[in-house]
Design brief:
Length: 380
């Protein structure tokens, strides 16, 4: 069985592309809000400030992406560690963005956008204000740091939320794969349970034939047994087979039992050609047919007919295995139920509530088992 390794949660928890998109989205939104606010308040020189605002926003995007790369290094840590790391790491990023914003707008003005006469009144007002309050610039800087910090930490929390969602999706995928593997293992175990049960009974029959010196019949049974196992073991235990192939395997089994009961076993198989291509779990009929032989044919001295028929009803494939043997006495041993339980458990593991197995005696004698499962022609 090939098992694909899971992706490590440490590497690219949300992926570089998603990380960059989230950064662009958040800072783009912030840029739009600030620009709209400035336009509504009627600040002068909107076009000039827009140029600097684009430059500052581009720097903010770059620094936040570096913050993303830094936080990715802690992607495999518990959430209780990642949150304080994110809060701490966001502060120097916000400080750098605020410092660059202050420098480009109020200190350097590299393009001399605010050097014209239309800005003379604003320059004199700021100069007078700073002369009266030397700490005003630093308080303004602190306010800018806090505003950028809230934006940066908002992105960091968004990053962790996206990362947590990715972890949940990976966990769900793991759970789905484990559930599928568990179901496959259960089906395989149930399938393997059929073969030893059948082999045990067949070897008992062979032993009795050898002890009675019925060598030709024993040899014929050995050949049929070899053909049966060679055919049945070529398929994967958890795979489905066409109903036609399943019936062929049951014919081989019935040929084996016919050696034991040449005068008592009669077979009647009626399968419409339209249903031959329907998919069924491999050897799903084996325990049922075996029970018909054990409790219907072997207990009596008269001919007993074992019948297998199939029909389609309401989108379901319905298969009935029946015999017309004598009713079981109340004090007769009824077996351990391994066979029918095996059939039920395999169908339940494969189809759940879409399948069913019902069984019981006929009023006039004999016993019938009816299997119902969804019609499917795609998996075999």
């Amino acid at each position: 069985m090939d098992v694909k390794p899971f992706e490590s949660s440490r590497s690219n928890l949300i992926g570089h592309r998603l990380g960059l998109v989230s950064i662009l989205g958040l800072w783009g939104f912030y840029f739009a809000v600030v620009t709209i606010r400035a336009a509504i308040l009627g600040y002068p020189g909107q076009s000039e400030m827009l140029i600097y605002r684009v430059v500052v926003t581009a720097l903010a995007i770059g620094l936040t992406f570096l913050l993303y790369l830094f936080l990715e290094r802690f992607a495999d840590r518990p959430l209780r560690w990642r949150i304080p790391i994110a809060f701490a790491a966001a502060l120097p990023v916000a400080t750098a963005i605020a410092a660059f914003n202050l420098y480009i707008f109020e200190v350097s003005d590299p393009l001399q956008l605010f050097a014209g006469d239309e800005w003379k009144e604003e320059r004199e007002m700021f100069a007078e204000f700073r002369a009266r309050d030397p700490l005003a610039m630093w308080r303004g800087f602190a306010e800018q740091v806090m505003s950028r910090y809230f934006v940066t930490i908002s992105w960091a929390l968004l990053y962790m939320a996206l990362g947590y969602a990715q972890i949940v999706r990976q966990a769900e995928r793991r759970a789905a794969i484990f559930a599928q593997e568990a179901q496959t293992a259960q089906l395989r175990a149930l399938r393997y349970q059929v073969n030893p049960h059948f082999l045990f009974n067949t070897l008992n029959v062979l032993s009795s034939l050898v002890m009675r010196d019925r060598r030709d019949e024993a040899e014929k049974m050995i050949l049929n047994l070899s053909t049966f196992y060679r055919t049945s073991l070529t398929s994967e235990p958890a795979d489905d087979v066409q109903l036609e192939e399943e019936i062929r395997l049951q014919r081989l089994y019935l040929d084996i039992e016919a050696v034991r009961f040449p005068e008592r076993l009669l077979v009647d198989i009626a399968i419409p050609k339209s249903l031959n291509s329907c998919c069924v779990p491999a050897l799903i009929l084996q325990p049922v047919v075996e029970n018909a032989i054990k409790y219907g044919v072997s207990r009596v001295r008269r001919p007993v007919t074992v019948s297998i028929d199939a029909r389609e009803e309401n989108g379901k494939l319905i298969i009935t295995v029946a015999d017309d043997g004598d009713p079981l006495p109340d004090d007769a041993p009824h077996g351990t139920g391994v066979g029918l339980n095996n059939v039920y458990e395999r169908l339940d593991a494969r189809y759940g509530e879409e399948s069913s197995v019902t069984w019981g005696p006929h009023p006039e004698g004999g016993f019938a088992v009816t299997i119902e499962l969804p019609i499917n022609r795609e998996t075999c």
